[in-house]
Amino acid sequence: MLRRRALLRFLLTLQLTCALALAAGSEQFYLHSGDTVVFYGDSITDQRLYTMLTELYTVTRYGELQVKFVHSGWGGDRVTGGGGGPIDIRLKRDVFSYKPSVMTIMLGMNDGKYASHTAADDKVFYDGYENIVQSTRKEFPQIRITAIGPSPFDDVTRPATLPPSGYNAVLVNYSDWIRRYAATAKLDFADLNEPVVSVLEQANTANVAVAQKIIPDRIHPGLAGHLIMAEALLKAWHARPVVSLVNIDASAGKVKSAQFTTITDLHAGSPFVWTETDEALPLPFSEMLASDRDGTLGLAIKSSDVTESLNEQPLTITGLKPGQYRLSIDGQNVGSWTDEELAKGVNLAVLDTPMSKQAMAVRDLTVRHLDVHQARWRTIQVPLQQSDFPHASEALRDLDALENEIVAEQRTLAKPRPHVFQLEPVT
Questions:
Q1: What pLDDT, on the 0 to 100 scale, is given for residue 26?
Q2: Torsion of CA 160, 166, 171, 173, to 10 degrees
Q3: What is the phi/psi pair of residue 185, to 5°?
Q4: Residue 30, phi then psi, degrees to nearest 5
Q5: Count of Cβ atoms closer than 10 Å to residue 238 Cβ
Q6: H-helix or E-strand spanning residue 257
Q7: Are 144 and 150 within 8 A, CB to CB?
Q8: What digits encode the pLDDT tens for the residues 210-268?
Q9: Per-residue DSSP letters for 126-176?
């Protein structure tokens, strides 16, 4: 019986390891070194949340890539433009000036006018969307465009505002058209509607009151909703789910497998010690959940596959004697598990570790550089674009230099560091 259980544990561990290894080695990530990415859209992009999370993931998971990110959403925008000017001005000033190699487009929420579907509105949207793509390609023939099916209007957690099918049906119609247009126009496509709707449905079953806060005004998601949106975009970009993967045989005192990391100075015994230098950092779920005051982030994570899709860092240790074991990293207690739990594998990415703390600091710098860019753009460049103040250009240059300094620090901080792991029995 014991032999059968041991064999079963071995097979389950092997299955998990193989599955993650296959996922880790699948299609190449969409972004390349030297890319400049411009996120274009309306107020939902202007929130700078799904875009911030996409940047954070890229910087911490693929630290070797030199990619520039520009966040160019404007509240109220439609395919024809909006408060930031008509579409030709928006594109010239807020997209073309950055010489992008990659552009995402998410529009539609305002184009449907929060009213029932009409053929006239559809035509304006379709024609306007095609104009954006054609104008951009005329300026940059080699640009890679990801057309995004717009995030949903929440008709799940509250009664539909437009009975019987609700306003989100209009957005789903736009998303279906965008998908078809992307196929014919050879654009990439990411659906940010259906995955969020699916999470809302799961969350609404679990906790109605908290589920309603995921998109509190039914239009603009909070961080929880934007995490699912970032997941959908990153999956469309073939994002790697694995941070690092380590499998150690304690009884033999050796590393059975290690991916996206280097293991050195392994000392078998009690305590069991090794030094691990990963190639990437996890998304800081633990730190983000610590400030999840309304419970939406925790509910969204539980109601989705975001952890499995973006944040796996399995540590598997077999060959331990029966008992409870404590793991510390750089002297910080991370948690305690039985030998059986460690043999199945523990996901370090969702725990409070020195690596997740480092990733949260990267997140903070990401937000700071976005704030500096937003201030430069919205309080100086646009309001003063018709003026002739002699110091305006100098102020823009200074803010650009400041943002570049913050980004340089962000990239330096995102570089993984060696960490000392120690596993010992709990007495």
A1: 58
A2: 160
A3: -90, 5
A4: -65, -35
A5: 12
A6: strand 254-259
A7: no
A8: 999 999 999 999 999 999 999 999 999 999 999 999 999 999 999 999 999 999 999 99
A9: HHHHHHHHHHHHHH-TT-EEEEEEPPPP--SSS--SSTTT-THHHHHHHHH
From the number of C-beta atoms within 10 Å of its C-beta (0-12, 13-18, 19+), residue 374 rates as middle
- The CATH number for 31-236, chosen from 3.40.50.1110, 3.40.50.300, 3.30.428.10, 3.30.1490.190, is 3.40.50.1110
In this predicted structure, the answer to whether residue 320 has a pLDDT above a threshold of 70 is yes
Q: For the chain, give every domain's residue range.
A: 1-29+244-279+313-427, 31-236
**Which pLDDT score, from 0 to 100, does residue 152 have?**
99
Are β-strands 245-249 and 188-191 bridged in parallel, bridged antiparallel, or unpaired? unpaired
Helix and strand tally (H, E) in the chain?
15, 16
**Res 177: pLDDT:** 99
The per-residue pLDDT of the chain, averaged, comes to 95
| CA distances to 193, 246, 316, 424 from 9, in Å | 39, 16, 11, 21
Q: For the chain, give the number of residues.
A: 427
Cis peptide before 282 (omega within 30 of 0): no
Q: Over the stretch 347-367, which tens digit does the pLDDT of each residue have? A: 999 999 999 999 999 999 999
